[in-house]
Design brief:
Radius of gyration: 16 Å
Mean pLDDT: 89
Largest sheet: none
Order of helices and strands: HHH
Length: about 80
C-alpha cells in the first residue's frame, strides 16, 4: 500500500521555512551592524512576512511550533554551557 504522506513532508517544508527565516534574520543583524539603512532591508522584511503567512497557508503551524520549540530549547542549553 502506498504511503499517503504528502511529499515533501510538511515537517521538511516547515524546517526549510525556519532555515530561510533564520538566514534572513542573520542578514538583517549584519546589515544593521554595518549601518545599512532600514529602507534597504524592506525586501527582507517583506520576505519574512510572506514566510510567516506561508506557515499558516500551508497548514504547517504545528510542525513549525515544534521546530521552533526545539530550536529555543537547544539555544537555552547552549547559553547554559557558555
Amino acid at each position: 500500500m502506498p504511503d499517503s504522506t504528502p511529499y515533501p513532508h510538511p515537517q521538511d517544508v516547515a524546517n526549510l521555512i525556519l532555515y530561510v527565516q533564520t538566514e534572513l534574520a542573520l542578514f538583517e543583524q549584519v546589515a544593521a551592524q554595518e549601518g545599512i539603512p532600514p529602507t534597504a532591508l524592506r525586501p527582507i522584511q517583506r520576505s519574512q512576512e510572506a514566510l510567516r503567512r506561508a506557515v499558516d497557508q500551508l497548514e504547517l503551524r504545528d510542525w513549525y511550533r515544534e521546530l521552533t520549540h526545539g530550536f529555543r530549547d537547544q539555544l537555552g542549553r547552549l547559553e547554559e554551557w557558555l
